[in-house]
Amino acid sequence: xxxxxIILLIVIAAVxxxxxxxxxLGRARRGGPSLERRFGPEYERTVARHGGDTKAAERELTxxxxxxxxxxxxxxxxxxxxxxxxxxxAVQERFVDSPREAVAEADxxxxxxxxxxxxxxxxxxxxxxxxxxxxxxxxxxGYRQVHRAAHAETDGAGTEELRTAxxxxxxxxxxxxxxxxxxxxxxxxxxxxxxAEATAGAGSxxxxxxxxxxxxxxxxx
Length: 221
Prior knowledge:
About 65% of the residues lie in helices and about 0% in strands. By secondary structure, the chain is mostly helical. The protein folds into two domains: about 5-70; about 80-205. Helix 1 crosses helix 2 (about 40-50), helix 1 packs across helix 3 and helix 4 runs parallel beside helix 9 (about 195-200).
């Protein structure tokens, strides 16, 4: 083999290697912004949990998408939607007198509802949250908050912390009960919201308007 041919083969190999490296770099650059857009605040939380290591966070988020990206939510009929809405309203009403018990019930209710919609069940909380984060990234942390509060040591969370957890969890509840939603980035108020608003005063997107956990029901004379 002539020297000239050897040199040509080396040049061709170098071009192929450089081209592959450039393509991989381009994909990596596209992957970051794409994941950040898809996961929103969940992206920032994951990066923070990895101590600012963006690559590690993106690997985790990419794995979540690979495991749960093809999940299709099971439909929820109107009767089921009404039943869950009534139960959530009851949770908000119960909070006035028994905040810790109400938060525990909200945690159970969200887990049950997520399972009914097709997310991992049978006590697989971590896997359920991972799947929810792929399809409801903007509101899944409300579920985490209410779950932590429900499983905290006795008196580990104050009333205000419990109220905040319940308010934030409501946003995910609304998405899971809204007709025809599948991670649209928005959620609509479920049936019966007027009653819930009168009770809790918690608006969409987890904002609280007038709900006071310090109120008590008037005693009957």
